[in-house]
């Protein structure tokens, strides 16, 4: 075991380096985009400004040395010849000031020219990630936390910006400056100074790399705890009402605090290690500076070097310290950026479960006939949901699917939209296997009114227009009118511009359903899917919504998944599912005559409805007539009857 440990660590480091190189290779096309010559020219101009800025940077300590030597009267004949007519302190001081201004100016030119490239890279990668997330399967999204995904993308995009900026705008300039300074030091002071400077830089870089590597595990732990805390916070806020219903504010606060406590510990370790890193860097560079200063003082005492030379070596080292110190930060930021972005790139390489097959053609809907042929499906291999089911929905007809909870009803809608691949069998629309057509054309032909309508946190008009983004205002209003929600919208102060709130929470259940119906009307699909669209509504609202749905379903092929059997009594065919198998089918009257599972479900629901009606009647009578039996006792008694009937 002891012999294998070093090899394991080496493999881990090699894998990390390979991963980082892969990330950098994938980033390269965004920094040097093949289809954007204008951005390529910006990169060229930024690099040119970088070189000019560094040349001017080197001229600053030279001018500084000349000023000091002129003021102390130690200018050599060689330097007087080089300076020529400019050999006056006033001119050199002005030149020194101008050089510093030009240095900053060209550095800003570099940043401005390259900012467009960097931000374009960030935008393109963010768009690619966003598109990819929508291409991933429903299974992937059901197994992930939205808050955590959002945090991963947020940190990844920030990491891209950091890597692009730090690598191009800081790492390259620092390397160029180091080469130039080495030549300058060799020319003015000799190779012994160059050796000291390079040794200092080498030790500084080694220590920075070593210390930063030690901090990577701490940073990863901090990121994971940050993601966990963010996920819990988003999940809790999205379920605000549930938290309030059960009075679990303290429970949610404790769960969030436990994640933040882990983040706190990781953050303390991160900043503590940063203090060690900064201290070590300062010690190393100060040691190198002191050695150079001692050598310069010795040369001044020996008459080999002027006072200006002593000042110059100090100015050069101080000037080198800034980018070198920044270089340490750059390395840390790039490493941390790579850690942040590697999860996002892993997300980008997550293969979509559902993809269009090679040669897939658009679905051609002429009649709208649907056929399920020997369809089997399982979310997990150990648990079969649908078992070899076959049925047909004739063109222009309504077929309902009913059954107990967990029978597999809603799974059928997900299969029809091809959110999952089948375990066996096939689904046909007008004779075309939905697995052989493009997903876009399949979903364009299907309209969906779900059981739980979740709206975008935008205006009512936006949510209706979502069914057909290019629709005119007149078409939007007509769809709302047909969905019987236009009158309600016009009573709102902001009308169609009224915001619906997070997940549409400002609207009632019936109002949300009408918005969902309106956008389906606007989409005008040839095939309609209704997934228990009225199961959560009261009887009065259910009747209104049912009327609107019947209008939408008119002359369309309709597949209805129903919990309330009273909503599908007029269906052309009713399929009864139980444990993933079709146990009965027929019209409402035919199924009642069979006395099977459908009839049992029907009479139970009728008894439950009758009990609720009696409860409502008794409550009304108690309020009006002050019946002798206490109101609460009557309510309790009749509620028990309703529960028993169910």
Describe this structure in words.
The protein is of the alpha/beta class and 646 residues long. The protein has three domains: 30-348, ABC transporter transmembrane region fold; 370-393 and 408-555, Rossmann fold, CATH 3.40.50; 605-645, no CATH class. 67% of the residues lie in helices and 9% in strands. The chain is built from 20 helices and ten strands. The strands form two sheets. The chain has a six-stranded mixed β-sheet with strand order 6-7-8-3-9-10, sandwiched between helices. A hairpin with a 2-residue loop joins strand 1 and strand 2. The longest helix is centred in the middle third of the chain and has 53 residues, at 249-301. The radius of gyration is 37 Å and the shape is elongated. The two termini are 63 Å apart. The model is unreliable at 1-18, 80-86 and 627-632 (pLDDT under 50).
Can you tell me the CATH class of the largest domain?
Mainly Alpha
Helix content: 55-70%
Q: Calculate the mean pLDDT score and round it.
A: 77
Q: Give the count of helical stretches.
A: 20
Give, in order, the helices and strands.
HHHHHHHHHHEEEHEEHEHHHHEHEEEHHH
> What's the structural domain tally?
3
End-to-end distance, in Å? 63 Å
Low-pLDDT windows of residues: 1-18, 80-86, 627-632
How many individual β-strands? 10
Backbone structural class: alpha/beta
CATH domain topology of the largest domain: ABC transporter transmembrane region fold
Please identify which CATH superfamily of the largest domain we are dealing with: ABC transporter type 1, transmembrane domain
What composes the largest sheet? Answer: 6 strands, mixed
Shape verdict? elongated
Strand order of the largest sheet: 6-7-8-3-9-10
The fraction of residues in strands falls at: 5-15%
